[in-house]
Design a protein that fits this description.
Length: 208
C-alpha cells in the first residue's frame, strides 16, 4: 500500500518503528514536537499516535486534526481520551499494526467519499441521511441521487433532464415522477429543518 504515515510517538516508540519500517510497506515521517505545529503534510495518509506522548499540550494538537485518520496505540495502564478513528491495545503484533492501519485508511477514505457538504447540510450517501448539526432526516436512494445531481450540475435542471439522468426515461416520459419526488423531499426538509429553500424552482427546472 503506497501510503505515508506520520508517527506521533516517543523517542523509544519512534526507534521501535524505525527498526521494523522495512516490513511496514509505508513511507514514514515523524512528528517534530519542537514545532508544536497543527499543520499536517497533505501527503500523509494516516497518523499513528503513541498514547504515552499525549500530555495536555500534545492532546490539544491531536484533537485539532480532523482531516486525517488517526490510529491510537495505547496500553491498559495508559488510557487517554482523544480524537481517533481506530485503536490498538499494546502490546501488539506487526501484522495487526499493518492490517489495522490499512483498515483505518480505507474506512476514512470511504467515509470522506460518502459525504458531501451542501449549503449548511451534510449529505451522507452511505447512511442515506441529510444532516444539519445534530439533526438529520433519512432519505431514499433516489433522493440521494436527486440531491447529488442538482448539486453537481450547478444549474437549473429540467424535469426531462432529471428523468433521463436518474430514471433513464425518454424525453416524452411522465414528468410527474420528478415532481412527486421533489415534493416529498422538500416536505421532509421543511418538516425537520423549517427550510423551504434547499431545492429551488425556476421556470426551466430545479436547482440547489
Amino acid at each position: 500500500m503506497n501510503s505515508k504515515l506520520l508517527i506521533f510517538g516517543s523517542k523509544n516508540f519512534n526507534n521501535l518503528i524505525n527498526e521494523v519500517k522495512e516490513y511496514l510497506n509505508f513511507s514514514l515521517s515523524f512528528y517534530d514536537f519542537t514545532t508544536k505545529s497543527y499543520l499536517i503534510d497533505p501527503s500523509v495518509s494516516a497518523i499513528i499516535v503513541d498514547s504515552q506522548v499525549l500530555d495536555v499540550n500534545n492532546l490539544g494538537i491531536i484533537n485539532k486534526i480532523h482531516n486525517k485518520p488517526i490510529l491510537l496505540l495505547e496500553t491498559l495502564a495508559n488510557k487517554t481520551t482523544c480524537n481517533y478513528n481506530d485503536k490498538i491495545l499494546l502490546p501488539t503484533t506487526l501484522d495487526e499494526l499493518i492490517n489495522k492501519t490499512i483498515k483505518t485508511i480505507t474506512a476514512f477514505k470511504f467515509s470522506i467519499n460518502s459525504a458531501l457538504q451542501i449549503k449548511k447540510y451534510i449529505l451522507d450517501k452511505n447512511k442515506k441521511k441529510l444532516i444539519k448539526g445534530n439533526t438529520y432526516i433519512s432519505i431514499t436512494e433516489r433522493e440521494v441521487q436527486l440531491i447529488e445531481l442538482l448539486f453537481y450540475e450547478k444549474k437549473s435542471l429540467s424535469k426531462n433532464y432529471i428523468l433521463k439522468k436518474i430514471w433513464n426515461y425518454s424525453d416524452n416520459a411522465d414528468t410527474h415522477t420528478v415532481e412527486t419526488h421533489i415534493y416529498r423531499l422538500r416536505k421532509k426538509i421543511y418538516t425537520k429543518f423549517n427550510d423551504d429553500k434547499f431545492i429551488l424552482s425556476f421556470e426551466k427546472g430545479y436547482i440547489i
